[in-house]
Amino acid sequence: MHFEKRTARNQKYRKFLHSRQQNLMLLGVFVFVISIVCGCSNQKEQESDGSLQKITVGIDKFEPYSYLDMDGNYTGVDIEIASKVFHELGYEPDFKFITWSEKHTCLADGTIDCIWSCYSMNDRENDYQWAGPYLYSRQVIAVASDSDIQTFDDLLGKNVGVQDTTRAAELFFHTIDSALPEVKQVNCFATTEDMFAALRKGYVDAIAGHEALLNEFIINGKGKYRLLDESPYISKIGIAFQKGTHEELTQKINGLIKEMSEDGTIGSIAEKYGLDAEKVVIRGGSDEK
What pLDDT, in 10s, does the model give residues 127-149? Predict the structure, then answer.
């Protein structure tokens, strides 16, 4: 009788142990599954946080397109457009000032992935894998507000100031084609400040240069100067990659640029930095004005 009771107790005990082992095993499986789920979740969060692939963008210090603000942050027309485009495409732009005369080498040796800094496509169409154009870059002419010069024809026989070795100098020396008349004298200055001073002091009747540069001069002049409506030379600005590379990426950039032109995004950015959107934005991804 006692033996039967012990056997029954042993059987109950073994069932209890077996049940407990099963419960512990189930608990272990549950903890394991939870750890995997949490691990995957954390991994996804980490992948999400670091999902933007870095792309190195070569730039020049050239206001208002690419420069540093008072706090040392990259800013400008091209900085904002490039940031919006690359973020949309899953890239984190790493802007890098380069020696502008070495931009081709920097691109070829992989120091940078692209050039995005008011870079003209004119006469360089076959040198790079291009995205764009997205903006026009204009050469313009500034005169005193009370000047009788209204059109190119009025420059005939006048004294004009330009910065040496610039596109404006080439235009007035007629080394490139333009509708400009023969002027009395072309005065070349080493710096833009010398050129501005010449107009302020009346040594020249007009000065010529990049629209962004002369716009700043006009703004600082507080109404003393104005720009002629005509532009003697218009460049198309694009984004340059090493030739034969990034074909798919440039196509995607072109698609986004077209959207941003049509919805007014590029125009708003241009006007934020003092450019005339109606004159500089290329509409609908076309280079027709």
Answer: 999 999 999 998 999 999 999 99
